[in-house]
Amino acid sequence: MRMQEDAVLGCKLSKSPSFSQDEELYIATSDTKIKMEEDYAPFVDKILNDISYIPKNILDLGCGPGYIARRLNEVLPNAMIFGVDKSQIMINHANKAINKSLKNNYVFHSEFEVDSGSLRIFRNEPDYLNYYEPRLKYMIADSANLPFCNLKFDLILLKGTYKCLENKFDSLKEMYRVLSHGGEIFIYEFRKNIPEDEFLELTKHMKPQKVKSLRRKLNCSLDIEEYKSYLLEGGLFKFSTIEHDGLDLKIRIKKGRI
User: Fold this and answer.
1) CA 153 to CA 182: how far, in whole Å?
2) pLDDT digits (tens, 9 = 90+) for 151-168
3) What is the mean pLDDT of residues 184-197?
4) Average pLDDT in the 14-43 region?
5) Contact partners, residue 45, CB within 8 Å, separation at least 6
6) Long-range CB contacts (< 8 A, 24+ apart) of 25-29?
7) Minimum mean pLDDT among 21-25, 97-101, 158-162, 240-244: which range?
8) CA dihedral 219, 242, 4, 2 (to 10 degrees)
9) Where are the domains of the chain?
10) Among 13, 158, 167, 196, which residue has the least CB neighbours within 10 Å?
């Protein structure tokens, strides 16, 4: 059976008729008020506290149902935020969530960006635009061929996404291409080889079901040496730092100013 990697679900899943059901289940269990308050909002706040500037253009790569982008939209009223994912189901859900009155599953496909910064390829364009939040845009796109001009974003976020990208090397190059001078990329993944005593300490107050889920996600992650090899191959290692952040591995890539 052929396997498909999905940037949102985090591990390899069987490509079967039930694959869309897996995505719907993920949405139902992850895009909740509790998850937003306990996981997604603190993650966004942590990133914004970790940078010395106020980002104006942000890319959430592998945005899934759009929770991180929505949080960014809430706390950064002057920022333009793009959420990109390859899943139509995820993008449909993300669009519905930003406007509860949306009656149809409008999907925003993008293939290019014109000089003015506006994106031109839509399906059901007239109705879709009536519902669209101008500072928060979701689209289906390939991480290895991003539909943005050079130096577009001053902040790019990937949470649990990079390990699942089909073309990790080209995706890194594309992210760096669209990153502005002085901008930063934050890649967060679970630490695969975290010491057992540290894992037990960090999860001692969690419910057993969540701890079991975390162990599975840790096993799906890449080794730190694998991340280093991609950074080296892409010529980005010297611009990068890799450090532990609790259960996470944080990769930070900064593009120098000219």
Assistant:
1) 10
2) 999 999 999 999 989 999
3) 95
4) 68
5) 75
6) 26/64, 26/65, 27/64, 27/65, 27/89, 27/90, 27/93
7) 97-101
8) -60
9) 3-254
10) 196
